[in-house]
Input
Amino acid sequence: PGLLRASSPALERRLRGLALVRDRFVSEAEAAELLRELEPLLARRPYQFEHWDGAITGYRETERELGGEVGQALLTRIAGAFPTGRPPQPLIHVLDLHQHGHIRPHIDSVKFCGCTIAGVSLLSPSVMRLQSCHSPRLWLELLLPPGSLYILRGAARYDFTHEILPDEVSFFRGQRVPRGRRVALICRNAPQG
Ligand code: OGA
Ligand code: MN
Output
């Protein structure tokens, strides 16, 4: 609860269970092991800044089945956040955000993503901001410490945009959250039908 901040108590109630953060979902040892597995794959790619009109700037990414023991165990735990019969897809989206990169407000395409998004954050803390598509004055901010898991489902996934704030405006409850390089492991289930 300390990791969420909403524009109003009513909105906080409305999104309870639909947008949430679990701190310390991944231990420091697990994080180090995951990064050891992923760094060589990421290091081959340059960060992309040029797609200024895209949702994400300053990033590199890959898709990957988590092979190792730690990755498999992690995937099993993340799968618990998904509805029965709608499990996460086996390919994990690995998104490496440069310290000067950020993710602009967007909604994940319903062509490629089902009802649930779950992401593990590694390395740098960041602030994820959700904003209502219908009433822009309604917003929810999530503080994502390294090792945390966030989940977006239902209305939080479909009726709100989400973004990762750039370093210059990375604040939570008035406190600065300096943004360094951040690696996210994002699980999504398949669209229905
Ligand atoms: C995305 C996205 C969030 C994250 O790639 O669509 O919203 O945690 N990523 O990096
Ligand atoms: Mn997204």
